[in-house]
Specification:
mainly alpha; three-stranded antiparallel beta sheet; 5 helices; about 40% helix
Length: about 120
């Protein structure tokens, strides 16, 4: 019996298996990666133990990029990118700068006082 090829069936989508294969079935990242977290590669060279997607992330992140930008540039789901970033973080190949939590941002009154002070100059 012949197994139909993907091109024989329009409903077959090869990307259904791909994210699962890229992460080895893992769904959780080694660290928490907010969409706005900024990632910077410490080196553009990926070790031999890394997969091609890891190398692509390192190459992209020679200039700092957010997690959302990495996912968009690689055309991969954010969940997959988070798992791959966790691998790179565990190996010490990237640094991550997380956004400041809203609770730690200055109160609106402080900002108004700064603006008023600048207008007074």
């Amino acid at each position: 019996m012949r197994v139909p090829a993907a091109e024989d069936n329009e409903w077959v989508d090869e990307s259904v298996v791909r994210p699962f294969a890229l992460t080895g079935g893992r769904t959780r990242a080694g660290g928490e990666f907010d969409l706005m977290a900024v990632v910077k590669a410490l080196s553009a060279d990926a070790p031999a133990t890394c997969g091609p997607e890891h190398g692509n992330i390192l190459w992209l992140c020679t200039a700092p990029l957010s997690v959302a930008e990495i996912a968009s540039d690689l055309n991969l789901p954010v969940g997959v990118v988070r798992v791959l970033l966790g691998d790179l973080l565990d190996h010490g190949l990237i640094v991550v700068h997380r956004p400041t939590p809203v609770s730690q941002l200055p109160h609106g009154g402080v900002l108004k006082e700064v603006i008023d002070g600048l207008h007074a100059l």
